[in-house]
Amino acid sequence: MQIDSVEFRKLQAGGKPSEEPPQEDADGPVFVDESGRRSKKFRRIGWVLALACAGYAVTLVVALIGGNSNAPSLLIPGQTEDKADTAEETPGPSETPTAPAGTEVEVVAGVPSPSGSTAAVRREPTVSVGEPADDRSSSPAGDSATGTATPAAGGGDGATTAPEATESTDPGGTGDNGGTAGGEQTADPTDPVPTETSTEEPPGEPAAQGGQLAGEGAR
Amino acid sequence: MRRRLPMRYLLPSLLLVALLAMLMLRGYVHSEILADHRVRPPVSNGQVPPQILDGGPVIDARAPGEPKALSVPDRNLVLTFDDGPDPVWTPKVLDRLKEYDAHAVFFVTGTMASRHPDLVRRMVEEGHEIGLHTFNHPDLALQTQSRIDWELSQNQLALAGAAGIRTSLFRPPYSSFSAALDDKSWPVTEYIGSRGYITAFNDTDSEDWKRPGVEAIIERATPKGTKGSIVLMHDSGGDRSQTVAALDRFLPDMKDRGYRFANLTEALGAPSAHTPVTGADLWKGKAWVGAVTVSEKTTSALTVGLAAIGVLVFFRFGLMLLLSFGHARKVRRRRFRWGPAVTEPVTVLVPAYNEKECIENTVRSLMESDHPIEVIVIDDGSSDGTADIVDDLWLPNVRVVRQVNAGKPEALNNGIRNARHDIIVMMDGDTVFEPSTVRELVQPFGDPRVGAVAGNAKVGNRDSLIGAWQHIEYVMGFNLDRRMYDVLRCMPTIPGAVGAFRREALERVGGMSDDTLAEDTDITMAIHRDGWRVVYAERARAWTEAPESVQQLWSQRYRWSYGTMQAIWKHRRAVIDSGPSGRFGRVGLPLVSLFMVLFPLLAPLIDVFLLYGIVFGPTQKTIAAWFGVLAIQAVCAAYAFRLDKERMVHLISLPLQQLLYRQLMYVVLLQSWITALTGGRLRWQKLRRTGVVEAPGSIPTQRQGSDERRPVG
Fold first, then answer.
1. What are phi and psi of B709, to 5 degrees?
2. Hey, is B549 helix, strand or coil?
3. What whole-number distance in Å separates Cα of residue B170 and Cα of residue B187?
4. What are phi and psi of B348, to 5 degrees?
5. Which of A17-31, B59-73, B217-231, B527-541 has the lowest mean pLDDT?
6. Which of A57, A69, A93 comes nearest B21 by C-beta?
7. CA-CA 20 to 30 A from B274: which of B179, B317, B378, B400?
8. What pLDDT is attached to residue B693?
9. What is the pLDDT of residues B336-349, one digit of tens each?
10. Residue A158 pLDDT greater than 80, yes or no
């Protein structure tokens, strides 16, 4: 059989020599790559493409979920003076309304209002726009760590009221609350709980005090 | 091989998922998905506080129960532009503002900001202020609270991605003066205030969106005396040339009157409403804007590409109808002759590998031939006694040549060596000829330029759905495609089921080759390149048995499409050749490559677009378009059926063919592409035969019981 095909080729050579183009480019099966190198290369390219596609889809989902609809704080002069008159009411509400819509704001929104409320509004003009205060409330879900840290540091007033309240509630269910926030604390509940719960409790506890609005907001 | 399997299905599916995501994203930022164009009729305003209805246009409702209405001080004009940024008009507006050192406020929608982030960046850089105008401009009074939150957060996300800032300013869609607030829109305004936003309505509405003329725009925008004012204009949503022209006069005129053009917080003496975004939020915004950009670019390119392909495909349909009409007219004229009648005896080659079910029918059908023939059955090492069956028939002029299994090309070459005559007919071991088939098939050899002839293969088992689909495909392929190729002189394939060759042509191109899995396509191309004509003989009918299961169909088509790709690649040099080879290379190869190998690969995209259109887009239009395309195909198919005098009843399954069969075909093609690119090896996959096909009216006693219709083995 091999001989015959050679004969064929001789024949063509005799017949129309110039017109037989180099159609024997592929001696042996077309496309087949015995070494497997091409397959490996394309597999690699394939993985890159696949990852790019998957990455695209994931990026899109991540960008779409968990948005934040709050506005950064803006202080309009002339307004603040008005607000100063009703200082006791304004600060609380200015924060609390954020709570009912986004329930995740509960913890953070409640805390700053009783402790830093009046101070915060007064302070803001000096700190240009007062971004720090609002940044906390603007990313409530993710920043719970910073949220819980700040009141402990800044809210000296709040800390004094809180421990008293928490001691009474301690034996009951608050131990669990403390546990969810920080796992270590649950081991020895008595000591750390007051400091811990001071960040957790205000929404519920200060109801007795001036923080009524904050408490309502949290519910 | 097993390791490669997941990838060849994973990657295409992921590509489709990404494409669908891009399409949906495009629909989302083009307000095709989730858009709500309803506008609510006004209601009474008894619950709106009077100080709001009578007060200034800037509402600060951040303190609940204590909303305030602020006004812009005298000699201050705050220009506000809604609905942008627009790629055409916003740059022009920005240019005018820059020219007169004016600052303004742009209330951007999230969709437009996502699509044109560079313009938002430019606004911020040039000292203008950005306010939110929701993501895709719904009437908020009709929306739920969570939708309002979503509109705000998506708008902020787009803004963060475009310019790296968040804003505290807001203007609700479809709003005008604060005096127009009513009992439905006021609660929304209050809620927006509770989220920390300052809502800005306007004092003077230019109504430029109605395009009332430059004069009217200026008149409506101008406040009385030296009063301060927030002016409402639009930089998007249509032709804004009047707005731009009005600015050209309004800005210098009002400056001369002692006004200053400030943005809102400048006018109110407040710090900027912008707050820089950092960290994860910034990256989220950037990722969003990047994703939108990618989707815009990709889907635009695809739309253009698919439109071009669509035009080409329809052009091909038209050409096919035209040329096949011409071809049929030509060969059906009463006096039409290829040349002197061919009466010399011919050799019929029947390569057979394990064809015990069919071989007897095949050979007996040849015995009925009204043309003198010599039959050579080449048994390619069958293990089921195919050769013995033929031997036992004791038929005259039938020879059996046995060889060890070496593949179909080698079997044919073996047959060519044993053939006594100069015209060689080739058929498959599962095909049945009519008595006139051979005679009709060889008549074109009366023309000495003809090197090979394609017959008309017909599907015998057309009563099942899968058989009917292939029947439609065959009738169209032979009556439209092959006639067109005949006229254009670039027939890509002589079907293995029924074809005839001049021995001289076969020998000049070196006989059959096993370089490809489609030796019939390979040899046809080679004969073309050698300068022979290849023609179609419509009356040379051969009845073949089409695959009856999806799996068999899959392997048959896999071999065909992969083999065609191999043959095209093997003969690719023809494109730069001169003479007949070059002609085939520049007409035939591009035709086959585009319409059989390249465009069908993009068919899934068409289906994705279709699906998208039905779900999100203009559903009725999409469905109408689909039926339109179907109608065109039906017309072509009906014409092909008419040419072949086939019963139209089988066309009933045409709509379903478009929904199921086509998809199978492009998955096959895709797999062929992957195999070709990666250099894998395909083994010959033989079909299982049931042996029921025979020419109608020929040897009726040979018909086998219907029990045996099922695939054997």
1. -70, -25
2. coil
3. 15
4. -110, 120
5. A17-31
6. A57
7. B179
8. 52
9. 999 999 999 999 99
10. no
CA distance B314 to chain A (A): 32
Average pLDDT taken over every residue of chain B: 90
Rounded CA-CA distance B248/B97 in Å is: 9
Q: Which of B595, B682, B515 is nearest to B8 (CA)?
A: B682
- Contact of A69 with B150, CB cutoff 8 Å: yes
Whole-angstrom distance, CA of residue B235 vs CA of residue A74: 26
Task: Find chain B residues with C-beta within 8 A of A90's C-beta.
Answer: 63, 66
Establish if A9 touches chain B: CB-CB under 8 angstroms. yes
Q: How far is CA B45 from CA B70, B173, B182, in A?
A: 19, 18, 4
Q: Quick count: other Cβ atoms within 10 Å of Cβ A131?
A: 16
Name the token pair of B193.
């205030």
Residue type, A79: Q
Contact across the interface for A33 and B194, Cβ inside 8 Å: no
What are A122-135's pLDDT values in tens digits? 433 333 333 333 43
Q: Higher confidence at residue B356 or residue B682?
A: B356
Distance of CA B515 to the CA centre of its chain: 32
DSSP string, B7-52: HHHHHHHHHHHHHHHHHHHHHHHTT-SS-----PPP---TTS-HHH
Nearest to B151 by CA among B172, B176, B124: B172
Burial class of residue B700, CB neighbours in 10 A (0-12, 13-18, 19+): exposed
CA–CA gap between residue B311 and residue A218 (Å, rounded): 62
State the alpha helices, DSSP H only, in chain A.
2-15, 37-64, 79-85, 91-95, 98-101, 106-110, 112-123, 131-138, 144-154, 156-169, 175-181, 192-200, 212-218
Strands (DSSP E) along B525-578, which ranges?
533-544
- pLDDT the model gives residue A114: 39
CA distance to B220, B348, B423, B427, B706, per residue, from B363 (Å): 93, 10, 18, 11, 21
ipTM of the complex in this document: 0.76
- What does DSSP say about strands B169-170 and B533-544: parallel, antiparallel, or unpaired? unpaired
Gap between the Cα atoms of B231 and B206, Å rounded:
7
In angstroms, rounded to a whole number, what is the distance separating the alpha carbons of residues B671 and B12? Answer: 10
Judging contacts by C-beta atoms under 8 Å, the chain A residues touching residue B152 are 69-70
Bond prior to B85 in cis (omega within 30° of 0) = yes
Cβ partners under 8 Å of residue A152, min gap 6: A159, A195, A198, A199
Which tokens in the block code for residue A17?
Answer: 């020599």
> Has residue B556 got a pLDDT over 80?
yes
Query: Of A142-156, B260-274, B614-628, where does the model show the most confidence?
Result: B260-274
Q: Which domains does chain B have, with CATH numbers?
A: 31-277 (3.20.20.370), 307-709 (3.90.550.10)
Reduced to 3 states (helix: H, G, I; strand: E, B; else coil), residue A68 is coil
Percent over 90 (pLDDT), chain B:
73
* Site of tokens 């095209």: B568
Task: Return the residue matching tokens 């070494």.
Answer: A35
Which residues of B are less than 8 Å from A69 in CB distance? 148-153, 156, 195
Give me the long-range contacts of B659-662 (CB less than 8 A, separation at least 24): B661/B466, B661/B469, B661/B473, B662/B603
How far away is chain B from the Cα of A196, in angstroms, using its nearest Cα?
27
Cβ atoms < 10 Å from Cβ of B327: 22
Least confident of A104-113, B377-386, B580-589: A104-113
**Lowest pLDDT segment from A29-33, B21-25, B105-109:** A29-33
Q: What is the pLDDT of residues B34-66, one digit of tens each?
A: 888 888 888 898 889 988 998 899 999 998 888
